[in-house]
Amino acid sequence: MRIGFDNEKYLQMQSEHIRERINHFDNKLYLEFGGKLFDDYHASRVLPGFAPDSKLKLLMQLSDQAEIVIVISAVDIEKNKVRGDLGITYDSDVLRLMEAFKGQNLYVGSVVITQYSGQTSADHFKTKLEKLNIKVYTHYNIEGYPSNIPLIVSDEGYGKNDYIETTRPLVIITAPGPGSGKMATCLSQLYHEHKRGIRAGYAKFETFPIWNIPLKHPVNLAYEAATADLNDVNMIDPFHLDAYGITTVNYNRDVEIFPVLDAIFERIYGENPYKSPTDMGVNMAGNCICDDAVCCEASNQEIIRRYYAALKGLVEGTSDENEVFKLKLLMNQAHITIDARKVVQAALSRAKQTKAPAAALELEDGTIITGKTTPLLGASSALLLNALKTLAGLDDELHLISPTVIEPIQKLKTEYLGSKNPRLHTDEVLIALSMCAATDMNAQLALEQIPKLQCCQAHSSVMLSTVDIKVFKRLGIQLTSEPKHENKKIYK
C-alpha cells in the first residue's frame, strides 16, 4: 500500500499537544473525543498509513494520566438506537466499549446518562450498570438549551446535574455515537469544577475536517461525504479569521455553537480561553500528511464509494435523494466522476459480455481482475479466486478448488439447508480453498496471498449479499456495487 500519512509522527505530535493543553489549565482537562476510537476506518481509507486504532494507541501513551467517561443519551436508550456499523444498540455498545478499554488497561471511571427526563429504559440501564459495580451519573434536560445561558450556567441548569467524580488530570469524554451529549457533559463539569475552585479546561480531539489544509481539499471533501446524511458542511472558521487573520477549516456545527460556548465560558470564568472553534481542537493530522497526492487519490475514491453507498441506500430505503444530490455536488467539487474508479467500468463490461453478474478488483499495482458468474461460483467468489491466482503467479486456467469439493457443499446448501442458490458465497469458497490447501501446494500458495487484498478496490455489477459484503470488509477490500438487485424479488 502506498503511504500518504506518517502515523508515528501523528501519535507523537498529538500526544504532545494534549499534554500541553492539560498544563495550560489547572492540571485538569476534559477532552471531548469524537469519532471511532478502536476502528477509525474512514481515517485509514482517506489517509493511507493512518492506523485504524491510532486513537487507542494515543490514549495508551497517556494511560497514566487519563480516565475515560462514557456518555449515553437517555433518548437513545429509549429509542434502542443502533450503531449502523456494528448492528448493536447504544446501550450494548457502552458495555462493549468498557470491556475494550479495560482490555487495553485503560481506566474507565464512570458512565453518564444524559438528557434524562424519567425514561424507564434509562432507569433499567442504570440499575444494570450499578449491579456491575459501575458508577453512573445522571444529567438532565435544561429548558431552552443551548440558548438560555443564564439558566444553563446556574444551579438550576448545569448545577442540577450530578458532579462526576474524577481522579486523573485528563478526562476523556466519549460515547457510542453522535448526539450523545459529550460537549454538554464537559461544560457541565467545568461549571462544577469552577464551583470547587478548580479552573478545568475543555478541548476537542478531532481528526476531520483538517483545519490546516484547504477547505476543498479531497480529504476534507471526503469528510463531508461521510457525513452527508447529517447535512454537515465544512466552512472557513470566521472567528479564527477575525481573531488572527488566518484562514482555517472547521465545520458548521462547531462554528454555529461557538457564540453559545463563548457566552458559557465567560459566565463560568469571566473570559473565554479560546478565540475560535479551531482553537478548541487538538488536531495535528494535517501536519502528518507525507504524500498529498496519495491522500487526494484515496479521498476521491472514498467520495465515489460514499456516492455508490447512497445510491444503494436509495434502493433499500435507508437514504434519500438529498443525500445522493449532496454527494454528486461533492464529486463535482472534487472534479471527479465515477470514471475515476477503474473497477466500475471493468465490472460493467464483464457483465455485459457474459450477460450475468460480474465483479472487478484493482490490485495495488493497478492490474484489473474480473470475475464472472458460473454454475459453481458467484461472481464475487470467482473474483477472489482469480485475484489470488494472479497474486500467486498461477495460471488463470488452473482450478484451485476441484468441482468434487464444490459439489458436496452445493448439495449441503440446497438439499439440506434449503438454499435456492447453489453457487458458493465468498466465505464458502475461502473455506473450500483452505481445505484444498492441506493437500495442494497451489491452493496453499493462493491462500497465502490473502493479506495482499488489503485496501484493494472492487466493484460489483449487482448488489451483493450480506455475507459477501462482510467477507470483503474483513479482507479489507473497499467495495462498491451498482444500485440494483440480481433479481427482481422484493422479499428474500
Estimate the strand proportion: 5-15%
What would you report as the Rg, rounded to the nearest angstrom? 25 Å
The percent of residues in helical segments reads 40-55%
Please state the structural category: alpha/beta
Q: What assembly state would you assign to the polypeptide chains in this entry? A: single chain
CATH first level of the domain at 7-205: Alpha Beta
| Largest β sheet strand count, sense and barrel closure | 7 strands, parallel
Low-pLDDT parts are none
> Per CATH, which architecture of the domain at 7-205?
Roll
User: Within the CATH hierarchy, at the fold level, what is the topology of the domain at 7-205?
Assistant: dip2346 fold like
Count of distinct strands = 15
The span between the termini is 38 Å
List the helices and strands and how they pair.
Elements: H1 7-24, E1 29-33, H2 41-46, H3 54-61, E2 66-73, H4 74-78, E3 82-83, E4 88-89, H5 90-103, E5 108-116, H6 120-131, E6 136-140, H7 149-152, E7 170-174, H8 182-195, E8 201-205, H9 218-226, E9 234-236, H10 238-244, E10 249-251, H11 252-269, H12 277-280, E11 281-282, H13 292-316, H14 321-333, H15 342-354, E12 358-362, E13 368-372, H16 379-392, H17 403-416, H18 426-437, H19 441-447, E14 457-460, H20 466-475, E15 478-481
Parallel strand pairs: 1-7, 1-8, 2-5, 2-7, 5-6, 8-11, 14-15
Antiparallel strand pairs: 3-4, 9-10, 12-13, 12-14
Helix pairs in contact: 1-3, 9-13, 9-14, 13-14, 16-18, 16-19, 18-19
